[in-house]
Design goal:
Blueprint (H helix, E strand, L loop, with lengths): L1 H13 L4 H12 L2 H4 L3 H4 L2 H5 L4 E10 L5 E12 L5 E7 L5 H18 L5 E6 L8 H15 L8 E4 L6 H15 L20 H19 L8 E5 L3 H12 L3 E6 L3 E4 L6 H10 L5 H6 L4 E4 L10 E4 L8 H9 L4 E3 L8 H9 L3 E3 L1 H4 L2 H15 L5 H25 L6 H19 L4
Parallel strand pairs: 3-4, 3-5, 6-7, 6-10, 10-11, 11-12
Antiparallel strand pairs: 1-2, 2-4, 7-8, 8-9
Helix pairs in contact: 1-2, 2-6, 6-18, 7-8, 9-10, 9-16, 9-17, 13-14, 16-17, 17-18
This protein binds NADPH dihydro-nicotinamide-adenine-dinucleotide phosphate (NDP) and (2Z)-2-iminopentanedioic acid (2IT).
């Protein structure tokens, strides 16, 4: 399709250094071929508008470390698309953060948020700050400085940030405190992932991992398999991975691996969630501490996790962590389903390989949408000044994940790509955003 090729070529020429963003744009646009046939989107420049953020804010974040030394990081907020609602998406604090990473995440978020069925546009932000090894006071100093610039760009009806890698409950607390102080008002709906004591939603912390398992169970069931009894390889040991493993156990499956950026754990008895929570959430230790306290668990440095035989693989750490060699190992060892807990954890080649080999594959924008969905529910509760019970939020999360799977499956069928959930998710998300953009005119 010439129009799609043209838009991708122009992007490549304008932003040759934005590798991750180009990868995400290519994956989405190439799967839109069937819906571009009418030619109407080309005339209205819809794809050109879609791949161009409405606004990118880049700013200096100065802070002082424990030694009294002033340090400077770069902060970002990309407000990508507001056709469906206020910009919505997390903040990532990690030394690898740059404009390409934030644009790829913001771009994915547009379609993910559309799939939830809730009124949220797409955005993402963060900083190249490394929270590892920092004291609580240093984290607070950084968060306060970051918010001192960001606060003028966000609000419950404009842009609503939340967590992502390196940003959890502690960071959201410090960010919210500074926002409230600068605004001079308690505007709960400006940030999600807040603590339960000050306007957070029950189950937001668990939502991405739990939602991933609800969707995986739906996908397996639809293809005649059960989740119960399956062996599950999980990567990462952060927010998404932890609660994916917890829900896997609850649904009768057995998670046997997890990882951090130094190495990975193989635990033949299944990962001990209580121990892992203590190590990661309470003590902020490395996975070597898990191996030291868990008889039978093996610790391996570096990569190699995907060589572990498993029936289901759930990559929950970071982008491009599963390459073609990993995908080949998964297929060789009998893996039947892969669902992305992280954003874009599979390379383009790895995704294509799994699909050709008949492995069930669900992309992150559908599989990990439970987190932002419960963020949307947190916004609703804040607007109502009410808190829903855990059972209410869980029932809504289950229904949202089931409906995402139904819509993605139906779109794939309708557009001649049955079983291709990459195409299904991209097309279903795109059509909703495109309809809203068309209705709102050339903006
Ligand atoms: P956390 O910071 O809680 O955990 C991240 C985990 O991934 C850690 O174990 C970390 O190891 C590992 N990791 C991070 N970067 C790298 C890297 N470059 N190489 C190897 N391992 C790495 O983040 P989350 O669990 O919140 O996020 C994980 C993924 O899920 C991300 O892709 C995020 O975008 C996505 N996601 C998160 C949602 C949420 O609600 N939090 C919602 C939807 C998607 P280490 O400690 O060594 O850095
Ligand atoms: O990638 C994601 O969907 C998130 N990090 C969660 C975003 C949110 O606003 O809850």
């Amino acid at each position: 399709m010439e129009y799609i090729r043209q838009v991708l070529r122009d992007l490549q020429i304008r932003h040759p250094e934005q590798r991750e963003f180009l990868q995400a744009a290519k994956e989405v646009l190439e799967s839109l071929t069937p819906v571009m046939a009418s030619g109407k989107y080309e005339n209205m420049g819809l794809l050109e508008r879609l791949v161009t953020p409405e606004r990118c804010v880049i700013f200096r974040v100065p802070w002082t470390d424990e030694a009294g030394q002033v340090r400077v990081n770069t902060g970002y907020r990309v407000q990508f698309n507001s056709a469906l609602g206020p910009y919505k998406g997390g903040l990532r604090f990690h030394p690898t953060v740059n404009l390409s990473i934030i644009k790829f995440l913001g771009f994915e978020q547009i379609f993910k948020n559309a799939l939830t069925g809730l009124p949220m546009g797409g955005g993402k932000g963060g900083a190249d700050f490394d929270p590892k090894g920092k004291s609580d006071r240093e984290i607070m100093a950084f968060c306060q400085s970051y918010m001192t610039e960001l606060y003028r760009h966000i609000g419950p009806d404009t842009d609503v940030p939340a967590g992502d890698i390196g940003v959890g409950g502690r960071e959201i607390g410090y960010l919210f405190g500074q926002y409230k102080r600068l605004r001079g008002a308690f505007e709960g709906g400006t940030l999600t992932g807040k603590g339960l004591a000050y306007g957070g939603s029950l189950l937001r912390k668990q939502a991405t991992g739990y939602g991933l398992l609800y969707l995986t169970a739906e996908m397996l069931h639809h293809h005649g398999h059960a989740l119960a009894g399956k062996t599950v390889a999980v990567s990462g040991a952060g927010n998404v991975a932890l609660y994916a493993m917890e829900k896997a156990w609850q649904l009768g499956a057995k998670p046997i691996t997890c990882s951090d950026s130094d190495g990975w754990i193989y635990d033949p008895d299944g990962i001990d969630i209580a121990l892992l929570k203590k190590i990661k959430e309470e003590k902020r230790q490395r996975l070597t501490a898990y191996a030291a306290q868990r008889p039978g668990a093996q610790y391996h440095t570096g990569k190699g996790l995907w060589e572990t035989p498993c029936e289901i693989a759930l990559p929950c750490a970071t982008q491009n962590e599963v390459n073609i060699l990993d995908a080949e190992a998964l297929v060789k060892n009998g893996c039947i389903a892969v669902a992305e807990g992280a954003n874009m954890p599979l390379t383009w080649e790895a995704t294509g390989y799994l699909q050709r080999k008949g492995v069930l594959f669900c992309p992150g924008k559908a599989a990990n949408a439970g987190g932002v969905a419960v963020s949307g529910l947190e916004m609703s509760q804040n607007a109502q000044r009410l808190s829903w019970t855990e059972a209410e939020v869980d029932a809504k999360l289950r229904e949202i994940m089931a409906s995402i799977f139904r819509n993605v499956d139906a779109a794939a069928k309708q557009w001649g790509r049955e079983g291709d959930y990459v195409a299904g998710a991209n097309i279903a998300g795109f059509l909703k955003v495109a309809e809203a953009m068309e209705a709102q005119g050339i903006v």
